[in-house]
């Protein structure tokens, strides 16, 4: 029945979205404010957040330098090279910081979460928990979701700080721009509520989105090696696409 097959294929993304939403509701419904949940969440925050810090710092530093280089080259044509800090700050805090951090987090930590949970599924650990009347969603998925929710805003703040440092080193140290003008333009042109907090709100949404997709695909992975590999691939692909889509939606709303 080709027609029926085509209909099912067209509805598959909507069905998958519904299942992800139900999984989120199941996780939220399993929240119990206990010491065990706090400890597990902090452990996972260290594993997925602190261990992603090095790549976030390195990428942030060089992104800041590249932004400063391109901004100076473009603004020099109009005699406005002193506006480089304003351009770098606006683009970083509003867009590049949250988006690039979320994409790096999806590639580094999201795949790790999906693979770890998928391996638990493949080795029967999740089934064993269910046999012992332990909710695997509460014990396994929820702490990792909370960890992603907490980690991405903190990593975004670190990414922004290192990017500004890279822009400072290149603009002032290499190109010889006046440091007073650099900092005054940045201070007067970048607003805390609109630019900085707006970017952090984005990063909070992105962190929840990436961690939700990672735990969902890991938890529902087929219990085989190929199934775990498919889960990690789906995590990266879907997370990256949805981060960019949600970035456009939130930018349109905030603007």
Polypeptide structure, described:
- This protein has nine helices and no strands.
- By secondary structure, the chain is mostly helical.
- The protein has one domain (36-254).
- Helix 4 (84-122) packs antiparallel against helix 9 (225-254).
- The mean pLDDT is 88.
Highlighted features:
mainly alpha; 9 helices; 0% strand; 255 residues
**N-to-C SSE string, H for helix and E for strand:** HHHHHHHHH
In angstroms, what is the radius of gyration?
21 Å
- State mean pLDDT (0 to 100 scale): 88
Please give the share of residues in helix. over 70%
Counting DSSP E segments of at least 2 residues, the number of strands comes to: 0
Compact summary:
The protein is mostly helical.
SSE diagram, text form:
Blueprint (H helix, E strand, L loop, with lengths): L1 H28 L5 H14 L4 H23 L8 H39 L2 H7 L4 H39 L4 H11 L2 H28 L5 H30 L1
Helix pairs in contact: 2-6, 3-4, 3-6, 4-6, 4-7, 4-8, 4-9, 6-8, 8-9
